[in-house]
C-alpha cells in the first residue's frame, strides 16, 4: 500500500538547515509512499528563496526538492500550513512531515500521523 506523505515547508528545508536526508529517512520509515506538497508550500518556498541568505538557500533547495520529488497538489487554502491541514482533514494525507509544533498538533487533531525530527538528524512517527 502506498501512503501519501504531505511535506511542509520546513520539512523540505531540513536537508540544508538540519542535515536531514529527508527522502532517505522517509524510505527508512515507510514502505511505499508518495511525497506530496501543496502548491502553497511550493509558493512559500519560492518567496523565502528570493530573500537570500542561509534561509533562502535552504528554501531554494526545498523548492527544487518539492518540484523534482513530490506530487504537487492544489488546495483551497493559500497559506502553506492551512493547505497541509486541509489535505489532512480531507483524508488525502496518511502522514504529515513537519517540525512546526502547532502544525503537528493540528495534523494529530485531524487524525493524521506526524513525522518529525527526533535526535540530531533522524525522523520518527507520532501517531494521533
Report, as a whole number of angstroms, the end-to-end distance: 20 Å
Number of strands: 6
Low-confidence stretches: none
Quote the average pLDDT. Answer: 95
Written account of the structure:
Pfam families: PIN_9. Residues 5-120 form the VapC9 PIN-like domain. This is VapC9 PIN-like domain-containing protein. The protein has 128 residues and is α/β, with parallel strands linked by helices. The protein has a single domain (12-126), classed as Rossmann fold (3-Layer(aba) Sandwich), CATH 3.40.50. It is 51% helix and 22% strand. The chain has helices spanning 9-17, 22-29, 39-50, 53-69, 80-89, 101-109; strands at 3-7, 33-38, 71-73, 95-97, 113-118, 122-126. The protein has a six-stranded mixed sheet with strand order 3-2-1-4-5-6. Strand 5 (113-118) and strand 6 form a beta hairpin. The mean pLDDT is 95.
Amino acid at each position: 500500500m502506498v501512503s501519501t506523505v504531505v511535506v511542509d515547508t520546513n520539512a523540505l528545508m531540513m536537508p540544508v538547515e538540519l542535515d536531514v536526508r529527508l527522502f532517505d529517512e522517509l524510505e527508512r520509515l515507510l514502505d511505499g509512499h508518495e511525497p506530496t506538497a501543496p502548491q502553497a508550500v511550493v509558493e512559500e518556498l519560492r518567496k523565502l528563496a528570493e530573500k537570500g541568505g542561509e534561509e533562502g538557500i535552504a528554501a531554494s533547495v526545498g523548492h527544487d526538492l518539492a518540484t523534482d520529488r513530490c506530487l504537487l497538489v492544489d488546495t483551497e487554502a493559500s497559506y502553506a500550513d492551512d493547505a497541509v491541514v486541509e489535505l489532512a482533514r480531507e483524508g488525502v494525507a496518511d502522514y504529515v512531515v513537519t517540525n512546526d509544533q502547532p502544525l503537528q498538533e493540528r495534523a494529530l487533531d485531524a487524525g493524521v500521523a506526524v513525522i518529525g525530527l527526533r535526535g540530531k538528524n533522524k525522523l520518527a512517527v507520532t501517531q494521533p
